[in-house]
């Protein structure tokens, strides 16, 4: 399987300069079975730090044959991995924005970060999706802008 993804064989040299450590005080505590992080008087509960396990499990299940089962441990492991991946890519995009003196990370920054971190194939697919999304949203805006009321304030 590793042969199918040559860019994933040895990510250490490409990522060795990435700073995974927080620059502020960072403490882990165990409380009632939940890991919490304290950072500058802010407490983050594990369920707030991680994507919902039901969503992670649902995505995993969609990739497997209908009769396949997924252990709780596998879902929890994937949940942690997804959270780390999101933090990793977002951190790279945030660094770019900081260097450019911008405060808002946008979709193009995420695509750039993914490509910059070696996830070129995923970045290309994400760019295509993002472009399609913008076209659809533009069409919705044009349609609603012609005198029709929006169906809800979220549209």
From TrEMBL:
One GO term describing the cellular component: CCAAT-binding factor complex
Location(s) in or outside the cell: Nucleus
Keyword Cell inner membrane attached: no
Entry keyword set: Abscisic acid signaling pathway, Activator, DNA-binding, Nucleus, Transcription, Transcription regulation
UniProt family annotation: Belongs to the NFYB/HAP3 subunit family.
SUPFAM superfamilies on file: Histone-fold
Gene Ontology BP terms: abscisic acid-activated signaling pathway; regulation of transcription by RNA polymerase II
CDD domains, alphabetized: HFD_NFYB
GO molecular function annotation: DNA-binding transcription activator activity, RNA polymerase II-specific; DNA-binding transcription factor activity, RNA polymerase II-specific; protein heterodimerization activity; sequence-specific DNA binding
Organism: Brassica campestris
UniProt protein name: Transcription factor CBF/NF-Y/archaeal histone domain-containing protein
Cross-referenced PANTHER family: CCAAT-BINDING TRANSCRIPTION FACTOR-RELATED, NUCLEAR TRANSCRIPTION FACTOR Y SUBUNIT B-5
Major localization class: nucleus
Residue ranges occupied by any Transcription factor CBF/NF-Y/archaeal histone domain in the UniProt entry: 52-114
